[in-house]
């Protein structure tokens, strides 16, 4: 009898201890993860169009169209086997990229648990990148000889002194948090910060038609030009229908050959050479604008403290942001297209000039 009473008291004390531990763990987790939204998950269908644009950078109808053209599986399954419907999964990724929010901020606004947002958004961006990364190398179905000639003609009409330049190439430096290991490989002595580098080609329709990277921040533009295999890609594809080579135009860091041009350099330039540099410089600025629009649309990319490339796939995240930026360009007339739009309507092969600069439809851009 005494033994039974002793065992009963011992088990009771153990249950009380376990209960206290459970409460303490729950309290600590709530402090670390932050509170969820009162009332549970937010009903996305209850948001207005303006709220959709502010939170996700796309309207509700645009997100639903984007889900279809991206061919996202339903449901999205993360590495830890949690699942989410594909529209909500894409909204999680867009909300994560739209502004430098903490995960606990998204939990408070939308009622999404922190772990779910992290795993699902990472899984979604991996699926998008694996499915559509070929569009960032060379889209042969869109960048046809006829299309390249139309790009070159639009640039010439805007004031270029030559009619064979179809796009503008430039490098991008994206800052990252100081890594714990191998800091020297990511340190850029010119910008004096840790970063990753990319380069891209911007076409007159506002799309980033080629993107290479990331590479170590210590590398220069000439290294990216060679490592990207872009010289061979242009040699195979950058021709007019009559066989004339077409060029991209870059800054003085790039060389000069049949497929790339750069400004005249030197202290003793002629007036014609100076005028050439001025004319092309006014046009090459569109590359800077396109890269600026990516960061303006997806502000999380500019939150350097959270760009930890040893802890998260920073490179994949930026490349997916470029794909989503191109989708945004297809749906909204970008600054680049507005700048290169010709006021005087010219007929070129039966099409008006302003029609030639229109970006493709979403279904035309995202194709297998």
Automatic annotation (TrEMBL):
| Residue ranges of every copy of the DDE Tnp4 domain listed in the record | 169-326
According to the UniProt entry, its GO molecular function terms are: metal ion binding
Look up keyword Metal-binding and say if it applies. yes
**Source species, please?**
Choiromyces venosus 120613-1
Which keywords label this protein? Metal-binding
Q: Which cofactor does it need?
A: a divalent metal cation
| Descriptive protein name | DDE Tnp4 domain-containing protein
Q: Has keyword Metal-binding?
A: yes
